[in-house]
Design goal:
Helicase, Ruva Protein, domain 3; alpha+beta; elongated; 6 helices; DNA-binding; single chain; about 270 residues; 4-stranded antiparallel sheet
Amino acid sequence: MPELPEVETTKRGIEPHLIGKKISDVVIREKRFRWPIQSCLKKNIQNQIILSVSRRSKYILFHLSNGSFMIHLGMSGSLRITDNKQPIKKHDHVDIKTNENKILRFNDPRRFGCLLWLGRQPQKHFLLCTLGPEPLTDEFKADYLFKKSRGRNLPIKNFIMNNSVVVGVGNIYANESLFISGIRPSRKTHKLTKKECQKLVDAIVKVLKSSIDMGGTTLKDFVNSDGNPGYFQQSLFVYGRDNEQCKVCMSKIQLERIGQRSSYFCKKCQK
DNA sequence: ATCGCCTCCTGCGCGC
DNA sequence: TGCGCGCAGGAGGCGA
């Protein structure tokens, strides 16, 4: 569920509670994630001060003076700032406690996420070193996407969901940005014109930015927030709307499986 | 090198 | 009401 905007919102929400704080204890109730929690994690981060928090792709990185660690929320994970009065709920797998009796609590029902020690050069970790540009930076522009797309024969939707092309575009945002740019998800990547690449880049940026804005207003209270409402739901053009009317032309929204993923589009608005 | 399929896991919604 | 099935999703890994 967490796509890039949710991860960014989470990062912004927890950051002020953690900067400059010392990690006093780490409680690991479950170590089986996408990758198991390393046995060295606890001793490496305990008694260290959190100097800064950053985000790369959907990874949230925590920087300490002896190295960094990171958390990925997978598809069902969430992070909360809480305290030891709050009862431990199902799937509350890890607590990172600070010296001010605040707890960063990692909940992840499906355990698709991870919590990994990275060492002193986090950017060299195998999960981070092959990542493409961040979509909300100058690196991600039409020129880049056009060049990168030459000679590629896969559906454009798969292409933009590939993390080595651009990070942070999950299934929902891929569908939405292709609708906004008027491109069918099944179009072969190399057939996109430069103009279409421009439209697609603009659409991806627009969708991600507006979603961050919405997430920012809905999820601002992280201390007592008890869930993520479908705040983005009402603004979706195509995702999850098969057989419903296109909000632009009233045609019926189509559903097709592309690359094992549900792909929604409007036949009339997208070519 | 590139692409597509499989897999990890649990909760939910549907149909019977 | 209860059960079981199928699907959802991020993204690495692997086989073709």
